[in-house]
Amino acid sequence: MSAPPEEFYSEERWQNWLDRIRDEDIDPENEDSARLLLNLQDDVAIAVAKIVTAYDDEDIDEETALSELTDIRETVLGEVDFEDEEKAMLIDGVQTSLLCVFYAAEEYVAHGPAEEAPVEEYIREAEKAESAEDLDSALGLVAAGGTRIFAGDELDISVMEEMEYGLVTEWANGLDSIQSAMSDPELVEEDDE
Questions:
Q1: Tell me, what's the pLDDT at 26?
Q2: SS (H, E, C) the chain
Q3: Would you list the domain boundaries of the chain?
Q4: Phi, psi of 163 (to 5 degrees)
Q5: DSSP collapsed to 3 states, 117-149
Q6: CA triplet 94, 152, 104: central angle to 5 degrees?
Q7: Which residue, 2, 30, 126, 16, is CA-closest to 86?
Q8: If you placed Cys at 73, which of 24, 35, 102, 119 could pair as Cys (CB 3.0 to 4.6 Å)?
Q9: In sequence order, what are the residues at sequence separation of 6 or more whose Cβ sits closer than 8 angstroms to the Cβ of residue 106?
Q10: Cβ-based neighbour number of residue 184 at 10 Å
Q11: Do 51 and 65 touch, CB atoms closer than 8 A?
Q12: CA dist 107 to 38, 40, 73, 82, 140, Å?
């Protein structure tokens, strides 16, 4: 095993994103605002993808990978103090999407990919579980779909077009970020500098 990178993601990096959002006029209907929020989400997903890739490439072991994922999760999913309620809600939405990113990565590292099935099938089953108010199963199913993306499967995002907006669509949005991160892990970093 070679030495892992110094840091996959830092609290400072997360705070920089939050400061940018604090300083800007955020209107989710505005393309630039929406892109800023998506870049924030994708930036975290890229860090997660890099940890999973380092684990797959045997650059880091399972314990290190899970520890790194925990560190980022605790930073990113911690309570965010925003005076602006609308911005706080938008960050909460990003955190909700990222919850599934972490869960999928942790499942993948600890147990490998879920049984082979189309990612969309996992999401449709999760939607049924959400309708039945079984949110734990719903999250588990979307995360299982996420493990398939880490294994190289693709998510056809159009599956969400026919779904009612809810937690499953938020979590599936996180899977879309995983997919982007796995296909082009440098995307946001160049944009962000």
A1: 81
A2: CCCCCCCCCCHHHHHHHHHHHHHCCCCCCCHHHHHHHHHHHHHHHHHHHHHHHHHHCCCCCHHHHHHHHHHHHHHHCCCCCCCCHHHHHHHHHHHHHHHHHHHHHHHHHHHCCCCCCCHHHHHHHHHHHHHCCCHHHHHHHHHHHHHHHHCCCCCCHHHHHHCCCCHHHHHHHHHHHHHHHHHCCCHHHHHHC
A3: 11-192
A4: -95, 150
A5: CCHHHHHHHHHHHHHCCCHHHHHHHHHHHHHHH
A6: 40
A7: 30
A8: 102
A9: 66, 69
A10: 13
A11: yes
A12: 24, 23, 14, 31, 9
Neighbours of 82 (CB within 10 A): 16
**Alpha-carbon distance 168 to 161, whole Å?**
12
Q: What are the mean pLDDT values of the chain's consecutive 10-residue runs (193 residues total)?
A: 66 94 83 88 95 95 97 95 89 96 98 95 96 97 97 92 92 95 63 38
Q: Which two tokens stand for residue 20?
A: 């940018």
Structure pTM? 0.89
Question: Which conformational region is residue 152 in: left (phi greater than 0), alpha (psi within -120 to 50 degrees), or beta?
Answer: left
**Residue type (1 letter), 127:** E
The Cα diameter of the chain in Å comes to 47
Q: Are 65 and 42 in contact (CB under 8 A)?
A: no
Tell me the two tokens of residue 57: 């490439």
